Amino acid sequence: MLPQSPQLLSQGRDLRLCLWDLAEGRNAVVDSICLESVGFCRSSVLAVGQARWTLAVPGKGIDEVQILEMPSKTSVCTLKPEADAKPGMPMCLGLWQAESSSRPFLLAGYEDGSIALWDVWERKVCSRISCHEEPVMGFDFDSQKARGVSGSAGKALTVWSLDGQQALQVCSTHQLTNPGISEVTIRPDHKILTTAGWDHRIRVFQWRTMKPLAVLAFHSASVHCVAFATNGLLAAGSKDQRISIWSLYQRM
To answer: How far lies 184's CA from each of 26, 84, 106, 152, in Å?
Structure first.
């Protein structure tokens, strides 16, 4: 769902990103964007004003990210790493801005296992860290704590931080039982996080300490995505064509 809006943004392997109107029981596509990348990278949205938002999508070049102003579809810029960086394809994207600033930043996880922080206005990389030996498949960033966590095709979760000089640094690494994390998401109250696993499992951790809290076994195939609602409920989608809904540690 778009922030403060009855509209939904969906992205498919058909190279289209669709805007749906869900107001008053409607379910119609009202606009769409043709994407130029056939990769697995999800888009990211940042609200910038009333009925306006910034959209980050994988670009035409293998290592590029395109920034658009919506709903006008105006191209703001294309973020392309330096020639000697060679991070590979962007695998996951996260637009954000500090509460004290209107300057947008983009966190991008890449095929080579690195995560980069981009200054969108300056069109430059502020910092880059190597987090994983395998491609970064998903991450989430807690802007209140200036701390993030990422998962990959490997067997580790990596916690990293962002300092006042916009420099990323790895804080800790946490080994998992089985390889493959499709997505990582932190609950809106910043108390727990969950991972979507290729081993059909959803794992729950305490965000402050990374203490494992639970392993949720319901799905019969890889879990592709996890998302929290504002009321704390967790939804998980799997290759088994089922969506599960969970109530987790509501009184933490």
So the answer is: 30, 29, 17, 10
Number of neighbours of residue 149 by Cβ within 10 angstroms: 26
Give the mean pLDDT of the chain. 93
| 48-105 confidence digits (pLDDT tens) | 877 789 999 999 999 999 999 998 999 999 999 998 889 999 999 999 998 877 889 9
Sheet holding 90-96, edge to edge: 90-96, 105-110, 114-119, 124-130
Query: Which of 118-141 are b and which e, b meaning 16 or more Cβ less than 10 Å from the residue's Cβ?
Result: bbbeeeebbbbbebbebbbbbbbb
Q: 240 Cβ partners below 8 Å, 6+ apart?
A: 200, 219, 220, 221
Question: How far, in Å, CA of 19 to CA of 4, rounded?
Answer: 14
Residue owning tokens 């590979």: 88
Q: Judge contact between 246 and 202, C-beta under 8 A.
A: yes
User: pLDDT over 70 for what percent of the chain?
Assistant: 98
pLDDT of residue 83: 83
**Global confidence as pTM:** 0.92
- Separation of alpha carbons 55 and 34, rounded Å: 13
pLDDT of residue 251: 64
Query: Would you say 139 and 115 are in contact if contact means Cβ atoms under 8 Å apart?
Result: yes
